[in-house]
Amino acid sequence: MQLLGSIITAIAIIAVTIAVVTSQLGPFKEDTERQEQIQEQQEEQREDAEDRREDER
How far apart are CA 57 and CA 40, in angstroms? Predict the structure, then answer.
């Protein structure tokens, strides 16, 4: 009986750990994707500016 209680407790701890880690990674992943989008937009803007400068020459 004690072994069964220990196994149930271990499963509960693992489930809580997975839930906590998953909840922390979710927003982080979204933040990372947003930062990548911003970076890509900035690179495109730089390239457009360079193209305009070259066209002016």
Answer: 26
